Every structure is written in C-alpha cells, then in structure tokens.
Amino acid sequence: MASCLNAWGLGHGIDDLALVATELVTNSVAHTETAQVGVSLSRVGDSTVRLTVTDTSRELPPSSPATAGEGEVHGRGLLLVAALTSRWGAERLITGKRVWAELDITSKSPEPHSRPSP
C-alpha cells in the first residue's frame, strides 16, 4: 500500500490507510469463517483512494457502526473506519462480499506549535 501511495504522491496518508485496512481485514477474519481474503487499492480521484476487502462470506457488516460499551475492548473497528474515511460501504457478491472505504488524502500541514503563556 505504501508503494502505491508514494507513487501517487499521497504517501503522507499511509497511517490512516493502514489502520482502515487492518480494521477491515480483521473484521473479515474475525467475524466470518472465510478461507480467503482479498485486498486491493485504487485511486479514484486526485487525492482519493479506495481500499477494497473481499471475502467468501455473504454476511454484510452493519451499515451503522455500533458504539462499544465502556470498558469493552472490541466493537470500535467500524467506528474507526467511519471516522477516518469520507465514505464506506459493503455489497454482496455471488462469491461473498466486498467491503470498501474511500479515504480523501489531502496534504496536511503540520499544526503550528504554540508556547504556553508565561
């Protein structure tokens, strides 16, 4: 993924993309009995990339991510995906499903550092 982003001049977006990819692949492995997971990345605009994860389960993730309860260590994956992407979704395929997420990777300027007042 880093090679693609670097080639497209969007290398500064690798952290968010890697987190979204990790969450989607983890969901695919943890919530299905799939024997195969596919991952692809495509550029769909000047600064937008689409990450696609496919598996052999036809069960779709919830369209609205649930909120994890206090103290729970699971249940935040799709919330992270929703927060880090401009849009995401899922669709059934004949052989399973496709979950996709689009990230708008614009050039981010560093936040100005301010000194505390004396």
TrEMBL record:
**Domain Histidine kinase/HSP90-like ATPase: start-end pairs:** 15-104
Per its UniProt record, what Gene3D superfamilies does this chain match? Histidine kinase-like ATPase, C-terminal domain (3.30.565.10)
The alphabetical list of record keywords is: ATP-binding, Kinase, Nucleotide-binding, Serine/threonine-protein kinase, Transferase
Q: Which domain of life is it from?
A: Bacteria
Recorded GO molecular functions are: ATP binding; protein serine/threonine kinase activity
Claim: Ribosomal protein is one of the keywords in the record: no
Which protein are we looking at?
A: ATP-binding protein
Origin species, per record, is: Streptomyces jumonjinensis
